[in-house]
Specification:
The structure holds two protein chains of two kinds.
Chain A lengths: L6 E3 L4 E2 L3 H27 L4 H20 L1 H8 L1 E4 L3 E7 L2 E8 L3 E7 L2 H5 L2 E8 L6 E7 H17 L6
Antiparallel strand pairs in A: 2-3, 3-4, 4-5, 6-7, 7-8
Chain B lengths: L6 E2 L3 H11 L2 H10 L4 H28 L1 E4 L3 E6 L5 E6 L5 E6 L1 H5 L2 E7 L8 E8 H13 L1 H5 L11 E6 L5 H4 L3 H24 L2 H9 L4 H28 L3 E5 L3 E6 L4 E7 L3 E9 H5 L2 E8 L15 E7 H12 L16 H33 L13 H22 L1 E5 L2 E6 L3 E8 L3 E9 L7 E8 L5 E8 H11 L8 E3 L7
Antiparallel strand pairs in B: 1-2, 2-3, 3-4, 5-6, 5-11, 6-7, 8-9, 9-10, 10-11, 12-13, 12-17, 13-14, 15-16, 16-17, 18-19, 19-20
Helix pairs in contact in B: 1-3, 2-3, 8-10, 13-14
């Protein structure tokens, strides 16, 4: 017999910086704009494929607008993080959403990453790796100071629990 | 502390290398001779080959001359390199495996190759000794893996106890299952194909192929095709059997010194692979569809540091057993894990919600429609309707429809099979997860080896209240996913598997809905 407790996983407590929305939007622009420019150039320069290029432009334009205007807001609703004394809990994604939980005792390394765009917005990513090939837990779009404090907390906690984390 | 002497590899490794370099020369010359090459191409080929071979042999000598190794109380050290000197060492307490491989050339000269690994993936963590005596290899293995007590101990000359407890040996009838290994059959066909490709000209000019061709001209075409197919299948199966013989001859799985599993096998190339039991996190039983139909299965170790996801260690290092009867594979898996019976074999796996079946049906039908129905039907429609072309006599208008029906039926069967194979369960100390239809995989993962959870949900899964739960681990493929679980069931399952980890993140149903 299996006990039927109706329990759910609640979302992690902390949201990201609202600035992350702008960061994601700019990131989106950086992918979408070059494609649009290329298509416009193709449409103006090569008459034979003009019709096709225009169709592609309409489709890319529509998808690109959604990607730049809607997806960052969607992400902001989903992306969250939380740490306790014993575990790290993250939520991320939009079309495919992912919740990760890793116990402190299994954490191997904790890093911060700040890309050029992130620096522009004063943001920072924290990457928490475990021994698994599943990839690290990442928390994107944290305020710089929050990220540093988080790394401090994680480093102290993981040093307190020893073992080879496998 | 006594200074340990530096040791050299066996000089016969130079002869081994030379033999490997020159062995293909005579057959090459013979083939050139048959295909009617002139004297000059023959001589230049032989000359260039000889020069190259001699240079490389000198290189092998230099390698040997400059390679030294020693085992001290604390570490294993290796010095090598002609042009850039290379000194590397591994602390002895970090040595996790000493694997021995001897191919035919090495065996002719009584040599073997030892790889000394730390159990971390990545080539940096492995030292290779190419060319030690066969007995030396076993001694080295014994010395490095099992002599911790004699290193620290005061009783000096106590030999390490050779306590090898057999778990499984080869049953020759098992090799029948190996014949159904598609990859082996494909290798055989590929080898024959490429042999014909490169020897084709020789066979043609020697008049061998044309004479065969004449003999078959009177045979009807359908008989020729049938004969060809039957021959290909028989040759493929026999070839797969030969490959299996080479791979698995003399197979034994033993437990040594109560700490290490060791697999030994190989007819021409002999291999010895060891796996420390404390690295073992579970067992995966894989049943490719052909094997599954005859009740066979493969058995893999789920262990840390086997480097499955990196290029470092070959995938075969995780293989515990040749393809074998399913029940026997389970028993041996249990023995390797030190369990009474195969984990999970005594419980019924929990089924997944009906929505999981619906997803598989939609996916399979979509694939069938896109890759079969559309290409089969569309050309006929375009030809008859758009261009008003009448179909040729041998291809009536209705011809695509049986193909479509067969494709859709296959899609439904595959989807149903994929759904039926989904299952999960918790038994004391293990998480059991099963999935897959082309290859059905059942993994029994030690719960203590789980180092986190990953819940994943796509936009399509959300309205069906499904989620894919994965246990992350340092072993094997790193993630073991249970696809399309009921959302609430997945949380309860993860919570039960590792009590406490999820507790701070749980809430009662009514408050809010997050997933």
């Amino acid at each position: 017999m299996h006990e039927q407790r109706q329990i759910r996983l609640r979302p992690p407590r902390n949201r990201l910086e609202p600035r992350a929305i702008a960061w994601w939007a700019v990131q989106g622009l950086c992918t979408v704009v070059p494609v649009i420019v290329a298509l416009v150039a193709a449409a103006t320069l090569f008459a034979p494929i003009r019709l096709w290029a225009l169709w592609a432009l309409i489709i890319v334009g529509a998808l690109g607008t959604v990607y730049v205007a809607v997806v960052p807001l969607w992400r902001y609703r989903v992306h969250r993080w939380e740490t306790t004394e014993d575990a790290v809990y993250t939520a991320a994604g939009w079309f495919l959403q992912e919740w990760r939980i890793a116990p402190m005792s299994r954490i191997q390394t904790v890093d911060t990453v700040r890309g050029p765009l992130q620096q522009l917005f004063g943001l920072s990513s924290v990457t928490v790796t475990t021994a698994s090939a599943a990839g690290p837990l990442t928390i994107d779009g944290l305020d710089r100071q929050v990220a540093l404090d988080l790394v401090d907390h994680l480093t102290t906690r993981t040093q307190a629990t020893r073992g080879d984390a496998t | 502390m006594i200074e340990q002497p530096w040791r050299r590899l066996d000089p016969r490794i130079i002869a081994t290398t030379a033999a490997m370099l020159f062995a293909p020369l005579p057959p090459t010359l013979i083939i050139l001779l048959i295909s009617g090459a002139g004297l000059w191409p023959l001589l230049t080929t032989a000359g260039l080959w000889l020069i190259g071979g001699v240079l490389l042999s000198v290189g092998a000598w230099a390698d040997w001359y400059y390679t030294w190794y020693r085992i001290t109380d604390e570490r294993f050290e290796l010095r090598k390199g002609v042009i850039s000197r290379n000194n590397r060492w591994i602390p002895r307490d970090r040595i996790r495996s000493v694997d021995l491989t001897a191919d035919l050339a090495h065996r002719l000269f009584g040599l073997t190759t030892a790889k000394i690994g730390t159990g971390q993936s990545g080539s940096d963590s492995e030292l290779k000794l190419d060319g030690i005596r066969r007995h030396g290899g076993d001694q080295l293995r014994e010395e490095l893996l099992h002599s911790e007590s004699t290193v620290a101990g005061s009783d000096s000359a106590a030999p390490p106890k050779r306590d090898a407890e057999p778990i499984a040996t080869l049953n020759l009838t098992w090799l029948g299952y190996s014949m159904l290994t598609l990859s082996s059959v494909a290798i055989v066909w590929g080898a024959i194909g490429s042999a014909f490709g490169s020897l084709g000209q020789a066979l043609m000019s020697s008049g061998f192929l044309p004479s065969i061709g004449e003999r078959f001209e009177i045979v009807p075409i359908w008989l020729l095709v049938l004969g060809g197919v039957v021959t290909a299948i028989v040759v493929g199966l026999v070839g797969a059997l030969l490959i299996a013989l080479e791979m698995w001859w003399g197979f034994t799985l033993t437990r040594e010194n109560d700490t290490t599993l060791r697999v030994r096998r190989g007819l021409l190339t002999t291999r010895s692979v060891s796996l420390e039991e404390r690295r073992l996190r579970g067992i995966e039983i894989a049943e490719p569809i052909l094997l599954r139909m005859v009740g066979g299965a493969r058995t893999h170790a789920v262990a840390t540091g086997l480097g499955e996801h990196k290029q470092a260690a070959p995938a075969e290092s995780k293989v515990l057993l040749p393809p074998a009867p399913r029940a026997r594979a389970g028993q041996i898996a249990a023995a390797a894990l030190r369990e009474q019976s195969e984990p999970g074999s005594s419980v019924n796996l929990r089924k997944h919600p009906g929505a999981a079946l619906r997803r598989r049906l939609i996916r399979a039908l979509a694939v069938a429609i896109v890759i079969v129905t559309v290409p089969a039907v569309l050309p006929v429609v375009i030809m008859t309707v758009t261009f008003d072309v009448t179909m040729p006599d041998w291809l009536p208008t209705w011809a695509p429809w049986p193909v479509v029906v067969v494709a859709l039926v296959i899609a439904i069967v595959v989807a149903y099979d994929a759904y039926r194979n989904l299952g999960h369960a918790l038994v004391p100390s293990y998480l059991i997860a099963r999935k897959g239809t082309g290859i059905r995989r059942t993994v029994a993962l030690r719960r203590s080896g789980i180092i986190g959870w990953r819940f994943r949900q796509t936009v399509f899964q959300r309205p069906a209240n499904l989620v894919s739960l994965a246990a992350t681990t340092a072993a094997g493929s790193g993630v073991y996913e249970i696809p399309d679980m009921d959302v609430e069931a997945s949380v309860a399952f993860a919570d039960e598997a590792i009590p406490g980890l999820l507790t701070p993140f749980l809430e009662e149903e009514e408050t809010t809905n997050s997933m």
